[in-house]
Amino acid sequence: MKLQAITTQPTLVPQVGVPLHRGASREVDTETLALLEGWAREDATDDPAKLRAAQKELDEFKRAMNENRVATGERILYP
């Protein structure tokens, strides 16, 4: 199992000026971005045990998501 470090860089935050959907505001919600960055900093760790536990939790989540999608005839999300 390859362990990955948890970083403080948000990866699910849309680029500035890119609306989430039609009609979405083009203004940047700096308060929400600051909150997400703060949570990422709080969760950041280089503790190998915590990284293993986080990776195990992620692997279990992906497995469960794929099992559910196979059961409903949908394509798997995590090949």
What's this entry about, in short?
The protein has 79 residues and is mainly alpha-helical. The chain has two helices and no strands.
Task: Provide the descriptors you would attach to this structure in a database record.
79 residues, mainly alpha, 2 helices, flat
Description:
With 79 residues, the chain is mostly helical. It is 48% helix and 0% strand. It contains two helices and no strands. It has helices spanning 30-43, 48-71. The chain is flat.
**Rg:** 17 Å
Please report the total strand number as a whole number. Answer: 0
Q: What does the oligomeric state look like here?
A: single chain
Sheet-strand content, in percent, reads: under 5%
Label the structural class: mainly alpha
**SSE succession:** HH
Low-confidence stretches: none
Overall pLDDT metric: 83
- Summarize the biggest pleated sheet: none
Helix content: 40-55%
- The span between the termini is 15 Å
Q: How large is the count of helical segments? A: 2
Shape: flat
Mind sketching the topology for me?
Blueprint: H1 30-43, H2 48-71
